[in-house]
Protein: Antibiotic biosynthesis monooxygenase
Amino acid sequence: MAACFAVIFTSTRTEGDNGYAEAAERMDLLVREQPGFLGVESVRGAGGFGITVSYWQSEAAILAWRQHPEHRLIQQRGREQWYSAFHTRVCKVEREYRFGP
Structure:
């Protein structure tokens, strides 16, 4: 992967699904259609803490996704219903190293 940007979203979930799984699936499909989207990695522990890292070609692409109308609605639901806390960081990826496939 050449130089790109990463959005690191860490969060703590509230109890219960409350429609979260369905919304997450929809957001995964929608984000993959966004110009400049390169990929995503995500994991959530049993205690509710999770981390999702999405990769983008540019900061403009990140801002466009942030302002996407459907994504905005889901963000609001997250604040109201699904997360007790979250933190978003945007970073420039200068290089990467790999081991394995």
Observations:
- The chain has one domain: 4-93.
- The beta strands are 4-13, 37-44, 49-56, 83-93.
- Residues 46 and 63 are 31 Å apart (CA to CA).
